[in-house]
Here is the input.
Amino acid sequence: MAPPTNRNTDHGRLLVSCPDRPGIIAAVAGFLHRHGANIVESDQYSTDPEGGMFYLRTVFHRDGLAAVRDEVTTGFASEVGQPFEMDWAFTDASVPKRVAIMVSRYDHCLLDLLWRARRGELHLNVGLVISNHADLADEVRAFGVPFVHIPVTRSTKPEAERRQVELLAGNFDLIVLARYMQILSGDFLKAVGAPVINIHHSFLPAFAGAGPYERARDRGVKLVGATAHYVNEQLDEGPIIEQDVVRASHRHSAEDLERQGADVERIVLARAVQWHCEDRIVRDGDRTVVF
Here is the structure.
């Protein structure tokens, strides 16, 4: 899929996390001012001003940013990053993130992301879709996106993950699991070298496994929801990015609940991907700070 039209030309983003102490904002703002930048957006959060962690997201404009990016990055490291013990990252807001999507047979989240990307609602470049089934090949290729079918069985899973890593590692900034119904190994997550975002229904762990909507209806649930989270080696226990719910009632069949759940999954996953691609998320241990 062709990248969206560049926006936010000459705009940069800075994400910071560090131990909280006086002078952080002054140091960041002063550095950007000395390098000809104008802050256009800034948000911050402290877990505790005494001994806590400080988080900052700043968007700034600087004419000719691409030409001076290396200079700014090097200067920030020595003048601000190291003295304040920061974990930090500069990004060029005009450059779309390179995204790969993994999917099985459910198409609703996949097609929603492709549609939003084509319309420019998501500032990203979808470069590849990988699936363990061939069902969605024609629909994906209609968007001009390469589709690769890599079957996965219990006996072939190590080889399948090796092939996936060959396609993904070093080529993408983000991997999205748009209802990819396979558990990723710790070795895969280490080798792929990019964050992985997953979407699932919010019935976990109460309705884990097969047929969650049927069992949810049998229990008379009153809410249907979805959760987007980063993937780690513990199944569905990675830091949560976004959640949402809709009301349900006794009148809804299992099919109604599944349809409502699919709607929420689309929205929640799109938000999580958008926020990641706009550099709005900082990880704080097992949780996230979302600006």
